[in-house]
## 1
Amino acid sequence: MPSPSLSIAGFQQKVVVGIADMAVSNNANAMLTTYSLGSCVGIAIYDPVARVGGLLHAMLPDSTIDLEKAGRKPAMFVDTGIPALFRAAYELRAEKHRVHIYVVGGAQIMDNSGFFNIGKRNYDAVTAIFQRHGLRSVAEEVGGLVNRTMYLNLATGQLNLKVSGQAEEVVLCKR
Amino acid sequence: MQTIDSYLDRIQNLPPAPQLLPPLLRLLREPDTDMARGIRLITHDPSLTTNVLRLANSAVFGCGRRVETLDEAVGRLGFETLYRMVVAVCGSRLLGPSQRGYGFDPGQLWQHSVTAAVAAQLLARECGEDESLAFTAGLLHDVGKLVLSQALEGRYAQVAEQVEKFGRSMLAAETALLGVQHAEVGGRLLDRWNFPPSLVQAVWHHHQPDAAGDFVRLAACTYAGNMIANLIGHSYGIHALALEGHASAVGSLGFDADRFQRCMIRTQEQFAEVESMVQVGH
């Protein structure tokens, strides 16, 4: 008689990344989560071989408006946050050529003047940095009038999204 | 105005008035604030007093030794700070519950309101406006949503259609569907509750600050505080960011795009204070 199989499901730990913050981990039980991206932009990265993931919640595009702040809190800005996120992931043996990148957020308000279009400027800053470093996202969900919450499952590398005002989470697929 | 008045008259359950706030605001505006009278007003409400003291002893506001009475709290923190704590506790009672018509879960409108209040206060400080008024206006700016939420319940698809198909803001969607919008309703409600005209106008015109007459600058602080809360992501529900941008309103306060972004940073730095106020009612 075959012995009964025993599966041990790991206890999933939700790691919450606040605004202007980031986290990296190689703990397969971790779910990196960041809530409510409005005009902020969320960058998730995952190396499926090293099983290392990272999540950044950047608020503003350009660190030159407050360099002192950028020194203390690089995750506040897209231009200092993305390099910091990758450096932290490399320390856990992630490798650039293997990393899957997801970009979420950068929502807009209805503003023809452009004064408040921080979401677009955040996304443009992401694109510029990706170009400079030869990076390319595998999937994106940006713009619009909604805010979004993102969850990166470090066991699988799957990225889920929840849009404000909608009941269900959706999986952000690779393109 | 008549429409809104009759609209309010028809509503069965208006939210309970935060009765303490108008007299406290009046006291604050007096040249020699009678703090003892203010404290007497607060102590009439034992649960309010308990929650204010809890907030005064929280990690953010507390400074060393525990305060046991409101007198000690005023001595340590000043009457303006105590006033803001009272606004926060009263506001959490009012704005804490879910508002299903807007798709707000419990606590979400409250968190949005506290962030807008802290941002409006910061902006007021930067441009020399009254900080306590700006904080109060920021906190109560969406009070009209408490009234309209019921009417919007079950009409998600219609609201979404207004935004997605017709390109309307949430404010315009309310007008199209209900004939009224939350900013006017909120202003009218505050007027009924005997709040000063400055606050009534700031809330009434928090989406169109140019129309606020003598109180344009306070309305602009409220408008910009709301914008910061929304942009930062402390904003929830259906099409949370379907709001109109009025750069001139923020420009008239002396803010260019960079200075406005720095105010977003300063608001984020106040999140510990925001969190302790968000938690106060729980």
## 2
Amino acid sequence: MKHVTEPAYVRWSLIAVAFLFLGLFLILPLIAVFTEAFKQGAGVFLAAIAEPETLSAVKLTLLVAAISVPLNVTFGIAAAWAIAKFSFRGKNVLLTLIDLPFAVSPVIAGLIFVLLFGSQGVAAPWLAALDLKIIFAVPGIVLATTFVTFPFVARELIPVMEAQGKDEEEAAVSLGASGWKTFWRVTLPNVKWGILYGVILCNARAMGEFGAVSVVSGHIRGMTNTLPLHVEILYNEYQFAAAFAVATLLAVLALVTLVLKSLIEWKTERKSKAEEDYYFDASGEKAG
Amino acid sequence: MRKSFLRRGFLPGFGMTMGYTIIYLSLLVLIPLSVLFLKATTMSWEQFVGTILDPRVIASIRVSILTSFFAACVNAVFGVLVAWVLTRYDFFGKRIIDGIVDLPFALPTAVGGIALTSIYAENGWIGQYLAEWGVKVAYTPIGIWVALTFIGLPFVVRTVQPVLQDWDLQMEEAAATLGATRFATFTRVILPHLLPAIITGFALAFARALGEYGSVVFISGNMPLKTEIVPLLIMTKLEQFDYAGATAIATVMLVASFVMLLLINYLQWRINKFDAAR
Amino acid sequence: MSIEVVNITKSYKNFTALENVNLHIPEGELVALLGPSGSGKTTLLRLIAGLEQAQQGSILFNGEDNTNRDVRERKVGFVFQHYALFRHMNIFDNIAFGLTVRSRKTRPSKEEIREKVHSLLRLVQLEGLAHRYPSQLSGGQRQRVALARALAVEPKFLLLDEPFGALDTKVRQELRRWLRHLHGKLGLTILFVTHDQEEAMELADRVVVMNEGRVEQVGSPEEIYLKPANPFVYSFLGRVNLFRGRIQNGRIKLGEAEFTAEQGVSEGPAIGYMRPHDAEVSLHPPQSAAATAVQAHIERITLLGPLVRLELRRLDTKEVFEAEMGRQRFLELLVEEGDVVYVTLNNLSIYVESELQSVPTPALTPVHVTV
């Protein structure tokens, strides 16, 4: 259909410009991470990775993600069930409130927890009495991370569940299934890809969060240092190769995230495409 | 009870899930955020205004808004271009390109920050050529702009792409049968249709850029009055234990973000309404 | 302006949409392209408009070759099935679009455009809606806006793709009458695609019946209804009964019914087609000596307003078929379900199945029947 497309030269120059733009802003930085990491040889790279402080940062990062991701998944499923399967007043307000953490600067996300639990914070006397430490400690990092990753699963799941409608659940319940059974046997299989998608994005952000965590962590090496914070410390100490070596761990995480994300998109897209093909066959005239 | 039961249908679990949603939302988001406003009200008006009108604060707001705005502008133009190329054309590596667009969402901002700095520093891959022309990128507002463009890149692409995918090609065919050139069809038929999505993507990229911290700190150089952005200033105040100052600036910023969020939600609602009216 | 389609073949990756299609559409006629979905009728329409490119063949307007001309230069009015109105433009701007996109040199003045649009709005009876948006109009109104938009550029002819497909029955009836009227008024050549035989019969001067990428028959509505060129046309237009039988020794045998075939007819399996209203039902065997009547059992009686339809089962071949008659005739007959009646098979069309080709639709040749 030549009328609905551009001449070849326009097409190819648009593609070239897109490649140039993405190359300059996305692909080059990605390559830079790896080349900088190996600039002083594999020995320096491996040493930086094997350093005890790096390993403890890895551990802390994994721990934080292991707490905040399940919390947000539980929340996401509960919120999606309430919002997608029922109608009630103020739904839009609730949706906007769920989006709030996306609109808040990570620095402010950290700040609010400092104001709440810090040494001069609202809850400070109470925390002192109980001898609890939240700010400049692991709980603060978990809180800040959970805050910034709060909307991911819910945001992904609500439209998926809404698109599914509630016919299948109503059918299951009318056939005598309990609420839990209905959820496990009917809803969950329908939205499993949506949940996984949300989990992947949520996890990437949880492991990579920098600003919010930076405010609440206190940067205590080997104690409250996550991987991104460790990268910053090394970089500021002019240990560039080491900083980039640790950064490669996070870059690989990002690449794995992107691959998984594309796989899920590909899988769900293929599913909807199969439905579309069926539709095309049924109305043959549409072809072309 | 009976009435609400009828209205909501007979699926179970509304009370439980809704209750959990509200409690979790309140504990984690609403209460902590309200503490910020609470703290702000403990300041006197003069104190508050004095903090905000401090030349260093004003300068940082100016830097933040200008760099975020220009980054969002560039992303609006190139975002449409990338979305167009990805939905309309076939070429080698399209799937990879489509996937890599989300890199700024997946790559920790600190990593993006140090990578961009190494490229655009005066001895970096690109920085050295730009330096020959006398253009300094790293440690100048241009560097901030580069980092914010990186961070906001996926937004316009991902808001425009679905609209282009759902676009009815018959509109373009109709324009062609009426004698419109390809250019006229794009500017007068396609672009107006994409506009709400472009504005939404622009607003999202702009809002994200205003709050961005991680990728900017490395490349900006953090010189007060010149390359200091608002989130960085809040951080600095915190490190000096000036909680009141940090709170005042954060409050202004948060209110601005809320306004942006409402605007974005309104735009999304407009787009949906527009589509529903087909 | 006349349209000439010569030897057009168009195929997609895995199927052939049009195969060696030839068609002549004389100036000023209202022509229907009729066929089931997948018959290639829309593809043919799009080819004429220049929205598709054929692999082979040519398209001429008034004898002038337009095969390789760009859609923008063909000056055809095209109305899309779902109208394809520009959603962000109001009705006025939609109709004016074709004029306002012209280059400065050929563009009419603002005043002229305004006048033109308003006269078109009058023509399509939508005065006063100029500032509405497409989403604020009903389906029928949108359809008329789409027509006005196509007419604004003073096209050589109009092409309509399933123009009434998306509308409900009542609006469809109204719009058909209106289009007929418009055609009379403008005298423009109009070609429209439809899968609805009633629509084609009611509206068109000439009907082009298409199937599986081929033109099966071209003719006036009467011609194609009364003299279908082949079994496909026969069964596609209206209800039809089908009887299987054989041709032997110059006689056509359909069960106990026998007819004389023309001289020189090849022998073999034969199929007889008959419209339900050509079945003559009586309580007694017909007077004439010819054995053209069969006995049948009334399985079901359906009242359809002025018509009565009998579902019958032949006693000889057990074939099920239908007979239709006026209400008056039915009351005279005094029959009920379960009765056995005599049915005379009038106006049969017999086709011989040729042995060479039998898949998917056997090629059949009509045989003249003399009783």
